[in-house]
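Continuing the series of single-chain predictions for the mutant panel. This is the parent chain; the variants come on the following pages.
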Amino acid sequence: MESQSGSALPEPNHEQVVQRITEAHKILSKLRHEASKHPGMDEAVHEAIQRLEMALAILSVKTGGMF
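Parent structure:
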């Protein structure tokens, strides 16, 4: 993996990646729950949460993690 400057970045630890995906999923789930309490919340926020959850699911599959 390379950074934008072209220098090599260390490969992340698989367990750290899975842990971060799991934490992000929990945060998004909590955000979705809180957003549901506010029916006037912009639809774009709900769409953003849905897309982030999908991206996390794909990343989880690619890294072999489960959340």
